[in-house]
Amino acid sequence: MDKVQLLYEGKAKKVYSTMKGDVCVVSYKDDATAFNGEKRGIITGKGEVNNRMSNMMFQLLEKYGVTTHYVEQLNARETLVKSVDIVPLEVIVRNVAAGSFCKRFGVQEGTILKSSTLEYCLKDDNLGDPMINTSQILALELATQEELTKMAEIAAKVNQVLTEYLDKINVRLIDFKIELGRYKGDIILADEISPDTCRFWDKQTNKKLDKDRFRRDLGEVEEVYHEMLDRIIHS
Length: 235
Ligand code: UDP
Fold this sequence. Notes:
Layout: E1 5-9, E2 13-17, E3 23-28, E4 31-34, E5 39-42, H1 46-63, E6 70-75, E7 78-82, E8 85-86, E9 89-96, H2 99-105, E10 112-122, E11 131-132, H3 134-139, H4 145-168, E12 171-183, E13 186-190, E14 198-202, H5 212-215, H6 221-233
Antiparallel strand pairs: 1-2, 2-3, 3-7, 4-5, 6-7, 8-12, 9-10, 9-12, 10-11, 12-13, 12-14
The structure holds uridine-5'-diphosphate.
The site of uridine-5'-diphosphate (UDP) has 14 residues, from strand 9, helix 2, strand 12 and strand 14.
């Protein structure tokens, strides 16, 4: 399927229209940003890793009954996806305290949470993606109660399936962010699942295998993206 027109360029991906209205092409970039775009860089090979890994995760999730936007990988960094209307919310699930959760609540990084948490952020770069609660989401008509229920169900299923799968390749799923889209009257999983959007720690050593290596200048950035993909390919 050929790309027709650039519809949208984000920090990590470009989206193109195609000749068919119900599918579009996502092209993953090597550009990396952190802290709401304040820190910028290039992670060589990231686009290809995130494309391939996201597609493998979407195919795994489909097997477990989660409907995703994935249609077909086109080449190393491009994938055909269903053309969804993105719900302007980031849905974040946490199993272990890290990142903004530690800062906000004064909890030590690595603290295992007694139960997983679910939080929402409004997707708005100008506002710095502020946290938003369900009553605020309903009041602002960003999603309906029915949609919120479906989104929470999908988030819980993704957490369960990915946690179990990653454990087999010696990776702890610390937390992750997903985005959902409206498609033909349904809510389906969209965006990506990659070291850009999840925190992955090695099960034995707790070595960080995700974008925190870029955020915090920990080194071996390209290496850990490739390591995650290698572990998945060889699983
Ligand atoms: N995350 C993301 N995009 C964002 C914000 C967060 O993909 O704009 C992911 C992040 O990689 C982590 C999880 O969501 O896996 C929780 O992130 P957190 O709220 O701790 O924010 P951060 O510390 O990344 O600013």
